[in-house]
Design a protein that fits this description.
It is a single chain. About 25% of the residues lie in helices and about 30% in strands. The radius of gyration is 13 Å and the shape is flat. The model has no long low-confidence stretch (mean pLDDT about 85).
């Protein structure tokens, strides 16, 4: 995150749930940051994040909801 000049510890992370492995998302200017368990996973620009959300809305990831936990 140093290359973007962002300190992840100072961000307002939004959690997907209360579980230890919940996904967290933070928005910083044109960037969207995604992590689990406090570890940074991905950084998306506005276009990439928009494409991801379109995929979610269009059901492209619905199969993931049917995968049993812990796999």
């Amino acid at each position: 995150m140093e290359e973007l000049g962002i300190d992840p510890d100072t961000l307002d992370w939004k959690r997907s749930g209360a579980d230890e492995d919940a996904i967290e998302v933070a928005f910083v200017g044109e960037w969207t940051l995604l992590r689990t368990s406090g570890d940074l996973i991905s950084v998306f620009d506005e276009h990439e994040w928009s494409c991801f959300l379109d995929g979610v809305r269009n059901g492209e990831f619905d199969h993931a909801a049917s995968i049993p936990p812990n796999l």
